[in-house]
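pipeline/complex-builder :: batch 7 item 3
reading input block
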Amino acid sequence: MHNVWILLRREYLERVRSRSFIIFTVLMPAIMAGSVLVPAKIAEMSSGGEKRIVIVANDPQLGAAVGHELGNSKTNSDPDVGQSELQPTLYTIQVDTDTSDAERDLLAQQVNEGKITGFLWLSDEALANHKVVYSTKEAADFDQSRELHNAIRTAVTRHRLAQKGMSGPELDSLLTPITLKTVRPEKGKPGASNTTIFVTAFAMVVLLYAVVMIYGLAVMRSVIEEKSTRIMEVLLSSATSKQLLAGKILGVGAVGLTQILVWVIFAGLFSVPGLLAAKSFLGEVHLSIFAVAAFAVFFLLGYLLYSAMYAAIGAMVNSDQEAQQVQWPAMMPIVIAVFLMSAVIQHPNSAMAFWLSIVPFFAPILMLVRVLIETPPLWQIALCIALMLATIYGLLVLSSRIYRVGILMYGKRPTLPELRRWLKYAG
Amino acid sequence: MAEAVELRGIRKTYDHFVAVDRLSLNIREGSVYGLLGPNGAGKTSTIRMMIGITMPDEGEVRLFGEPFHREQLDRIGYLPEERGLYKKMKVLDHLIFLGRLHNLSEHDARKRSLDWCERLQIADWEQKKVEELSKGMQQKIQFIATLLHDPALVIMDEPFAGLDPANSVMLKDVLIELKRAGKTILFSTHRMDQVERLCDSICLIDHGRAILEGDLKKIKSSYGKNHVQMQYEGDPHLDGCELLESLNNYGNYVEARLKPGADAQQLLRMTAERARISRFELLEPSLEEIFIDRVGKNA
């Protein structure tokens, strides 16, 4: 135990002190925050500002109605999308009753000269054909064309109904849009909407995938380094190969946990402005203590499982280049798991999701997704963790055997039959 | 005197390759022992089994009079043939790390590292990273790491390989000092000439088998003084001489080996009749010659 502690401590301190660790630890949240903040900022910038729109209609009342609807459009938007943080577009509306071709050419010229943002051709003829044209130089974004479309539809419907003799209040109640809000029942509490849960789950799983891969590969590279610098045999004169393996895996794992902890603290400090900006299109980011705990547990288990394999691969090869040729068996399962993720997200309680998620190699991704989306029965989680622990134990036994022989072998990479013989060596 | 190392019929096979074949040897405490043989003879495999890096398939390893157990490793300093250091670590941190693996306290490891660095004149480099050091300096660090915990048994696998001349002398001096302090030293090398002068006892191994083991002086004297070095003027006509088994003629100087039972005095008389002899010396064979002789007989 004493040796494991000394080896672990060296591994940990050397890594945490290294420049690359510090850069990565700081850069990652910066990139994450940037990827959330920058689009939010851009959305804010592009949605703000003034738009001058000319509405050409034979009936000035209809033109005014469309303009009115456009001005009100924000208040009608889907509350779930939560756009309240964005600056509403200011529309300056001008109604024009001249539907001649000459006027059309004139307006087109004004659009080209940038005097107006665009014009809407709402002539009686266009209405009769159910075809309205909006001319603008700007590439209309999705939000804006939806706004225009809604405004025209509402105004035209209201206009036509009014022509059929309906009055104001009657019309208002008839045209009040129905909103749809998706919630998940969580022990009586009103939960967050499913969209945000999906987004959160997806982000956490991608993060887990990234850290498991990064630290699994770090174990492999570090074993290769110890082989290629030939320090292994010096260490073996006082520590066993099992102690070396344990110290390595635990030390690198502790670095991973430290990094995650730093990020969680970062996120905590950052969440006030960051999440506010993110909220504008993610809605509320939903993170329970349970989810964080599940993340930590599956990170640890997933890391142990994959790093055991990576350590064995590191012991088998002599260089990073060689490692790239043989690391795919260790990489494959977790990549497959990420592919399967969307299927499991859609049907988290299906039999397929259950069977896939208890496969130890997939579990860090798929069981975590299920836990985050739709807490599965406790026995399933327990079964999954038990299977993982058993697999980790088995892999560690196999890996330590490969490791023990491999770290003393320089030169040729072993073939499969040779590898099988390595497993049988007594010591 | 007690035995520092006792190997009893150890054997190690890898697949069908026999690395070490029922090897037995004894290393007295306080002696300098040479494990000699050509490359691939099984020297490193033997050492690895001696210190528990690998386990023998058969046979027994005893250290300091007891069956091998891992606590004994704290009394052993091992300098492997394949040796290296963590390149990114600072020299002092690295030495402390290796010292602590040999059960030194942090404080002791630091103090001893500083003393050794002072002694080997690398004190200015303690806070530098290993990769900034020259190869010669890294070699010094490796010696310090081997000796830091004041081991009773020092095992060095090809210690002189790759050493620059200054470090060779330094290592030799340190080793002689260790010997005076009563430590047991085990060398393994294929360069027999290098250790001949340092060793008390040797074991010659080839193909994993001991072909000669014991006290170096006794081994040599058992071969007798059958080597002749001669310096002369004139031509003694030694080619084809029936007393000699082999001959190396340099013109005014020859090295020759006598046939078994041949009389050196007869050779001297015979030569003196034909040439003026300025030097005539009878010698013991070198280790290398003994080795070649033995391997030839076994083959």
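note: Chain A touches chain B through 26 residues (CB under 8 Å).
queue -> next item
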